[in-house]
Amino acid sequence: MNQPSLDFGVQSYCFRHFPDNPTVAAKVRETGLDKIELCGVHADFDRPGQFGEVVKIYGDAGVKIISIGVQTFGGEDGERAWFECAALAGAKHISAHFKVDGFGRAIEKVRGWSREFGIRVGIHPHGGYSFGGQPDVIEHLLALGAPEIGLCLDTAWVMQIGPHAGNPVEWVKKFPQSIYGLHYKDYVFGPDASWRDVIVGEGNLDLPAFLKALDSIGFDGMAVLEYEADIENPVPALRRCADSMRQAAGLG
């Protein structure tokens, strides 16, 4: 895969039913992929002294840790450990949340740690019910945090805020220099505004247009698939997600 938009791995939250890392690493390989964004279900990022063991497990399985998160930054000194863990893995990205009552102090600390470790931070918009899920809030946070802090665009959660403000293709156009990470995810919505995971590209996401938009801005960041359904057996759906990605790009 030469295009960064198609050089994707998988988010470890897909495997939250399996807490042990050797099993998760094996399942990543079963999907046909070899990269992972590791979440807190599978590692304690407050303990970098122990994180090397986790890195070795994935390395021995041929799986590269390309990001960690999603981490909620409050501006506490101990959060520097999260950058230490990412650095131990060789990851260059951390997916992040900020809180409404703490983003002012947190952003400056995160910017400093980002410069110290050479690791970019992508704000993960978590829909309309979460701070940082709205475009105007994202704009404000990026204005405070750039260039160290950008956006980790989760396609499904962007769509969750509604069709007028929540079009992932338009977000790429709106934030062309700020997209540091991607969560490829797709939802369908019920009449009560509930949502359900589907194979990426088979729901409301215009996957070919989204990939085209990413390539047009020269996207060069971290990318993972995320499928949160079928928690006891997510591998078949993740394989289908990977196939759908390649087909949408004209490679399948």
Features:
about 250 residues, alpha/beta, TIM Barrel, eight-stranded parallel beta barrel, two-stranded antiparallel ribbon, 9 helices, about 40% helix, about 20% strand, globular
What can you tell me about this protein's structure?
The chain is α/β, with parallel strands linked by helices. It has a single domain, classed as Divalent-metal-dependent TIM barrel enzymes (TIM Barrel), CATH 3.20.20.150. Helix content is 38%, strand content 20%. The protein has 9 helices and 10 strands. The protein has helices spanning 21-30, 48-60, 80-89, 103-117, 135-145, 155-160, 168-174, 207-216, 235-248, and strands at 9-11, 35-38, 64-73, 93-98, 120-123, 149-154, 179-184, 186-189, 195-198, 222-225. The strands form 2 sheets. Strands 1-2-3-4-5-6-7-10 form an 8-stranded parallel barrel, surrounded by 6 helices. Strands 8-9 form a two-stranded antiparallel ribbon. Helix 2 (48-60) packs parallel to helix 3. The radius of gyration is 17 Å and the shape is globular. It starts with 8 loop residues before the first strand and ends with a helix. The model has no long low-confidence stretch (mean pLDDT 95).
Low-confidence stretches: none
CATH class category name = Alpha Beta
Alpha carbon gap, first and last residue: 12 Å
What is the CATH-assigned architecture?
Answer: Alpha-Beta Barrel
Largest sheet: 8 strands, parallel, barrel
Helix content estimate: 25-40%
Structural class: alpha/beta
Total number of strands = 10
Over the alpha carbons, how many angstroms does the gyration radius reach? 17 Å
Number of domains: 1
Order of helices and strands: EHEHEHEHEHEHHEEEHEH
Number of helix segments? 9
CATH topology annotation: TIM Barrel
Main sheet: strand order: 1-2-3-4-5-6-7-10
Please, what is the average pLDDT? 95
- The CATH homologous superfamily is named Divalent-metal-dependent TIM barrel enzymes
Q: Name the shape in a single word.
A: globular
Portion in beta strands: 15-25%
